Amino acid sequence: MVMFVAGCDAIDLRRLVTQHEARTRVDTEPAGPNCEHGGKAVLSGLDLDANGSLDDTEVTGTEYVCATLAPGVLVRTRPVPRGEACPHGGSLSQAGMDLDGDGILSDDEVTREVQGCIEPEPVRVVARVRELTTYPYVCRYGNSLVEAGVDLNGNGVLDEDELRAAVRLCSNFETTLLRQRPEPVGPNCATGGTVVEAGVDGNRNAVLDNEEVLATTYVCQPLVTHHGMLVVEDAADVEALRGISNIRGNLTLQAPDVTELVLPGLVSVEGTLEIHGAALQRVELPALRYVGGTLSISGTQLSTLHVGPQEHDALAQVRVHSLGLRTLPSLTSLAGLSAVVPLFDLAIWDTGIQSAPDTFRHVPTLHGTVSVFQNAVMEELPLSRLVEVGGSVEISGNPALRSLEGLRNLSMVDGGIGITNNGALTSVSGLKNLTLVKNHLSVTDNPQLLDVRFESVSTLQSLAITGNAMLEHVGSMPSLRRIHYGVSLEDNPRLSSVTDLPEFLSMGGLTLTRNALLTDLSGFHRVTWMFSLVVTGNDALTDLGTLSALHALEMLEVRDNPALTRLNLPALADVRRAFHVTGNAQLPSCWATLLADSAYTGPQEERVIEDNDSGTPCQL
């Protein structure tokens, strides 16, 4: 024994250097904030009183091992201290199968780790108020829309990618006041945040008083953020994600065996969000408000899809760059996407949707492309609020689609429109408000289509109507004045007439090919100039007299029209590059020769008149 003497008392050094035993204790954790479905709390610390057990006062660390809805999967969470990885601390979620069935997730059972960092103090919230110009309205007059979000780039302005919340109110937007207050942790914001209130300054004191507040919305603080890309490959990966509210990167689900993706706390994904699973049946992301890239969803068994708030009048609260719904034959409703607002592209391919006319009611404008493709039972398009498209619109391969009423408010398309191979479509008159298409408009291979009418279109880049087996008539188009490039009518076996274009004056060219019953072209009777006129293989056409005002062409080709007996182009006086009239069995060649002699000024090698009726004289 070693003793030191100080005054009258001895000091026993063995007591000073005693090492207390490290102990753990496993308690049952009820369902609650630490474990949604219950689980175990693993407590650790030093046995300071050496009684062989870990007392409550000796606990210095706690880990939770939580049960999940995925059979056999456990999740363990532990704190991450402040440091370089997480300047404000955070948590580490570890998940895996409970292989030994002891209810504890041991280290060798962990198959996925997801680290989330606590967000710093709330960044500045910015808000704006503007006139509400889209349905649904709050009142008959004086509707306003308040939008709010986090000022991520610090420019003091609410940019589109920063929008997180919105609310409508009945007030003049020019006199609406806003105010902000901290929102504590509670039912409105599970992690706390900011409440944005709007109203009218009734007492004119330049302050929004409590009794003047008419509407309220909340910008909630993301609790835990993961930095980087995440790929979900199994049920354990899904459970490890449940504590994350914000992902600064891409999130991809490529899990062939996962049947459900339910992430009630996920608020934003700043990259792309891709959800693809052969066994996936249910996707629920109720808190999601923002996806910086494309939200892409596919899965042959997926039947339940809820993204964002599910109230019927939900505001435009889920901003995504683009939305792609592909290979979803079991999905019969788009109601769960009512709050989703794509800004650029929207694709709906191979779904089980039959009718969803007003799904995207907060989408008046898309800056990219709309494509609705191979939806086997779709009878009506879900885009009745869409007014303007910055790219193209493609409606193709939808065998049950009967009308285009689902696009009735579409007015302007900066790209083209393609309406192709829609088996039940009988009319395109649903596009009644379409006024301008800056690229092509094509109507192709729609076997039940009876007529092509566009009541409001004034200008087109080009028009192609091809391969529509039952099409009988083109027109009316009372507002159409100009088609910059060409009009092409090809392989429409029952098309007989193009009429009722009273304002139409100009087009770049006209191609008429294999329209067996076509006889009436009077819709073009005011056109005076075209670059080219090509008339080929139209069995019933007897003359071109309804093009009576045509004065000048660069190229003329009239070929293989067996019933043609006269050209009958009385105003044509100038053909400059090519003159081909061939293979018209009943057309006296002299009519072609007379017209060429009077109008053609181009190279002689491009003057071709042959295989017509050379024996019948022309009676002037």
UniProtKB/TrEMBL annotation:
Q: Tell me yes or no: is Metal-binding among this UniProt entry's keywords.
A: no
| Listed Gene3D superfamilies | Ribonuclease Inhibitor
List each copy of the EF-hand domain by range: 150-173
Is Signal among this UniProt entry's keywords? yes
Identify the keywords attached in UniProt to this record, alphabetized: Glycoprotein, Signal
GO cellular component terms, A-Z: cell envelope
Q: Which InterPro entries match?
A: CWI-Assembly_Regulator, DUF7151, EF_Hand_1_Ca_BS, EF_hand_dom, LRR_dom_sf
PROSITE patterns registered for this protein in UniProt: EF_HAND_1, EF_HAND_2
The GO terms describing molecular function are: calcium ion binding
A Pfam family: DUF7151
Tell me which positions the record assigns to the signal sequence. none
Source taxon at top rank: Bacteria
Q: Where in the cell is it found?
A: Cell envelope
Please give the name of this protein: EF-hand domain-containing protein
- The species this protein belongs to is Pseudomyxococcus hansupus
